[in-house]
Amino acid sequence: MILKKSKDILSEYILCDHCLGRQFGKISISTNKRRGEVIRNFLKHTYPDTPNINYQSPCYLCENIFERTENIIDQINPDFQFNSFHVGTKIPKDILKKEEMLKDKFGLDYQEGIKQELNRELGKKIGIFLRKEFKREKEDITIIVHPYGSKIEYIINPIFIYGKYNKLIRGIPQTRWLCTKCKGRGCSRCNRTGKMYDESVEELVSELFLKEAQGTDSSFHGAGREDIDVLMLGTGRPFVLEIKSPKIRELNLKKLEEQVNMINEGKVKISDLRFVEKELVETIKNVHMRKIYRAEIDVCLSDNEKQKIEEFFNDKEIYQETPNRVVHRRADKTRIRKVYKVRTSKENCTSLEIYCDGGLYIKELISGDEGRTNPSIAELLGKNVKCVVLDVISIEEKV
């Protein structure tokens, strides 16, 4: 079958060994070039009168591109750090059309495309040339070769840095908050900054990393977020910082941690930095970690009220509709979260410590939010109660 189809193909078209072998590339384990040589040799003995049996350029399919790979590789000269790479190629449509035509005309069910062959051949040679690792996934960069146009492009994949942050002052959001009026363009409301707030945890943390890595942009992925007026204390909130298109990948994380903490002393502190894979971003964004909050309320609790709260909110499910204060920017739905324990203070009649699921709105747990949170402390006590100061003092480790 292989010899007969090869004879029919060569009777009409001139093919190099690479392209002849590729027409049956999925049948046996061998290089396409070697397969093409073997087929051509068998044809010489079996069908010696086959036209084009002795290869003479140019190849109808590839136009001798496999003979020019060394010239292509000489153009590769990246000016950034990387340890691993993948290769992609851009093949002209007329080349691909000829290949598809040949496949249909001769019923070539086991043909391997020129793109796959070039990617593999260039990958092996570039790896030797650059002394870097060729990978098919989780590579540092992708080298896009235009073999018929003498053009090289580089896609630099992001780096991801895990850490934890403490927010030590109130009044700053976790991430950059665009002005709601101008959407970041700059207007009189935001004093031409394009932002609702001058600073954010994201900006205070990422600026130095972005500069050091010479990246084009960054994204800050937090394991949940605290309100602007809430402190993040304890061991900190997990986050992943994504640096896009970094020219420098080998960062001294310990040194950067010290520098960020020194520059932002009294505002933001980071710790436990390490490089991670992209997959952790989804884990960070979707995991619900249990948390401990410290809340100050606007009423002084009696001993009887303290006991009532502690006994009632013990492994208690809470049904929360999206709070009134955020329903304009979040989906209006009912969430079910659990409060595991509430501790009151013997010394302070306005202080509560609440151990609960992540994603529970604590201010609304206290106030009831006009009945949108049920049950609530206000409902239990039968009086108006509001949270006036709130801090996150612990987040359970799950990453």
From TrEMBL:
Domain Pus10-like C-terminal: 160-396
Any GO MF annotation of the entry: tRNA pseudouridine(55) synthase activity
Catalytic activity reported: uridine(55) in tRNA = pseudouridine(55) in tRNA; uridine(54) in tRNA = pseudouridine(54) in tRNA
A single BP term in Gene Ontology: tRNA pseudouridine synthesis
Active site residues of this protein: D227 (nucleophile)
SUPFAM superfamilies: Pseudouridine synthase
Enzyme class: isomerase
Keywords associated with the record: Isomerase, RNA-binding, tRNA processing
Domain Pus10 THUMP: 71-145
Binding site for substrate: Y293, Y361
E.C. number(s) listed in UniProt: 5.4.99.25
Function recorded in the entry: Responsible for synthesis of pseudouridine from uracil-54 and uracil-55 in the psi GC loop of transfer RNAs.
HAMAP family found in the cross-reference section: Pus10_arch
NCBIfam families per UniProt: pseudo_Pus10arc
Family: Belongs to the pseudouridine synthase Pus10 family.
Protein's name according to its UniProt entry: tRNA pseudouridine synthase Pus10
Organism this protein belongs to: Candidatus Methanofastidiosum methylothiophilum
